[in-house]
# Entry
Amino acid sequence: MAYVCDRVDSCASEAKMCAESRNIQAVTAVVLETVGTGKRTEKRLGHCLPGLESMRKVFPHLGDCVEEPFHEPFEEPIDGVTVDYVIYPAIDDSIPCQGVFGEAYVYLACLGRCKNTNISCPLKPLEIDSCPNLDDSYESVLASNGNGTTKVMAIQSKGEKKYVNSFFLCKETKNCLPYEKVCNLVDDCGDGSDENETICKNVFKCNNGDYIQINSKCDGNFDCTDYSDECNEQCSDSIIQQVSFLVFSFVIGILATGANGIIIIKFFTTFGKSKNASAIMNQLLVFFISIGDFCMGLYLIIIACYELKYRNSNTEYEYCKKQFEWRTGIECSLLGVISTFGSQISLISMTFLSLSRVISLRNVLTPRSFNRKAGMKLALMTVFITLVSMLIATGPLFDIFEDFFVNGVYYPGSPIFTDAPDREKHVAILEKYFQHSMNGASDFFTWARIRQTFTEDVFLSFSYGDQSSVSITGQKLHFYGNAGVCLFKFFVSKGDPQEKFIWGVLIANFICFFIITISYIFINFVSASSGSGISNAATSKMVQKRNAKLQRKVSMIILTDFLCWMPLIFICIFHYTEVIDATSWYPFFSTFILPINSVINPLLYDSTVTEVFSKGIFAVQKKLGFGRQRQGTAVSCSTMVSKDIETAKKDNPDSERENNAGEAKKQDNEVPVDIQIQS
# Structure
């Protein structure tokens, strides 16, 4: 299939199909030629065409047209050689020549009308005995200027009574080309001199030798089959572009896996020792939260390691050139499952934990023992949380749902495609291939039927005897392959078949966040109310400290959940309503926003990590000679409250009796809420 989409039509449908599949725009290389006064030849550019005078009156900014004799590459006419006249728009600014080709480019460049001042005339005088490619219908002669100082070979077409010099001389082959074949994105010389980037500033040469428009370089679309137009020094893509993001991924990943790993180990060593049903449920839910956050940390470490692998590769811009292999690969799918499962099981478990703590407020004084009924509830909750999280994470990868979740198909080795087109693009290409409209056929063309049609019909018909095309198969660009970080496809557009699923998950996540917020606000309110009626000064001071600590912890839980999910939901809304295009924001959310809870949750929901770090800090301080002083301070602080209480009892025994009587009456309604927050 080497000759497919090479800008040379091998069959009737190739040009149209390639224009659709690879965004190859047809270029106009020939300008209109008219016969003017005295039978002179006129070359008309832009809006300077016969019959468009009225348009120039309606749109005066287009400007008038001027004419100029064209006798390049010479500064003066050559005796006997016909001079053409170029008529072009007389606009104030120069013309951007990056978008013109062939004759138009040659005329504008040689007349100095191009906006880029670095553009020079690509023409040079014809050499003696050049143009071996011209057949016997042409003959050449030597011509000179008026004083005989310049001699040049001129070409006459037999049957015409004029000599011309309007040819481009190829550098190596010495062939002569008409102007329309110069800087037209096709190597007509055979040596590349007619498309050389030094003289053709409208051309970008791919590393594999293909030519594309210079405006197509670094535009986000892959026009070169080797991806060199998007993978170069000026522009390139990677999994994690910024170095700061890469460093942050490693730091957060290591902290998240380390902190949550400690809690997971603690769970396996302590689970089941308590006989209190609420304590066991609290312990299990904290374990699930840690599992989810551990998965997020693991995801960050793995994705950062893959980025380092591509950065340190001997192949230049390796990820950029192999990104579709990565995004359609099994590794990307697994990373997407790990991150999605981790975020969902953590959020759902936090929701259940907040509800559990609200419900258990009334059972603090009369704790329920763990029995068979409590065990069944715990088992059902475990199955529900795990199953829902796993279905959300793996459901988009089931083959039965591919028509909803597959974003495109990548065909390695096919010159027809340079990316992974979606289903609508496939149908549009098939319209060009079969040369008839397929309106309403999108539903008929399932992904299975599309892959079969292209591999068995389209590719084979363009094989031209090349058996390698038989082996071309499509690789699915799955749900998690929408970006290099392999994240859940949060940013969905209108009309996307995945939008209902994605918005369903986002709405469910928002509901979870709302439940968590309301639950902890209620817990904080009950905690504050429980100590409002205490008259004993020492006891009241203790309760105030406890409530202040609880308020800080509740505020931190709500704040981290807000920072984790609400910015994401808002950006999803803005992207969906087309206020912004957040497609390139995935690396930021995957490294900075979503992992926030993964590091902070171990500190909020379990004291184990804090204790481990405190012991480590104390050990270091002890080695440095501060251990005894710090330990003494800790002991004096722990005994201070009890001393204050004893002092208060001695100073005011009557007040103590009144408080005891009043608080005994209220004891059934008071809840030591602080034990609900710390497992």
